[in-house]
Write a structure and sequence with these properties.
The chain has helices spanning 5-33, 59-70, 80-86, 105-120, 147-155, 201-229, and strands at 34-40, 49-51, 75-79, 98-101, 125-127, 159-165, 185-195. By secondary structure, the protein is α/β, with parallel strands linked by helices. The protein has one domain (5-229). The protein is globular, with a radius of gyration of 18 Å.
Amino acid sequence: MSRGGPRAATTRWCHRAILRIVASFARLAVEIAADFRFHHDLLLPETAIYVAPHRSMFDVPLGIHTFRRLGVAPLLVVSQQHLGALRLPIRDWDALNVLPISRDAHGRARMLEVGRDALSAGRSVAIMPEGRVIRNDRANGANVRSGAAELAVGSGKPVVTLGSAGVEELWQRGKPSTFASLRRRTIVGIAHGVVAPCSDVGEMRQAITESLAAAEHRAHRILERTARTA
């Protein structure tokens, strides 16, 4: 008999099915809404903390699709408030590689605790360290919180920075018109750099902030070159 009995086996099968459906939906959403150009030439660490800027609600399907392209399945740290608004009848989010957290001190402590445990067990973690959608013209180093840096210092695991360009034109808050347009916008995604862990949270946060900024700058340069040659 399978581990946990027939009911547990059925639950695991359901979780796997949900993961496949979500991945398929994310891929379809990206293909419908965008001409996605993905650039990746990194040697990825076996276990890492993945961080990315948050410029659009479209980052959600794009992120899922990007991790699929990278061949990694990290634990995704997401807003408990946003998940609650979806009213999904799901209790075991961990089985779906999702860690819902609140925005208060308790949520932060839980993210650090569960994140460290996951990394210690060889499971990567993905965070948008800005915590919310930030417009390009308002993006700066002050938006990047220290959670990813604390995880890196506490676990000794590296940080992989991701970048994107063009996604801010797709799905902003209050403007869910992504799929209403017949025009597929070109968007660029990149796996930019690996930031080695250090022993100081402030120094680590600064290194992550600089790598994220460089990732976005590089992605926008690629997007500009793509537009000129189109």
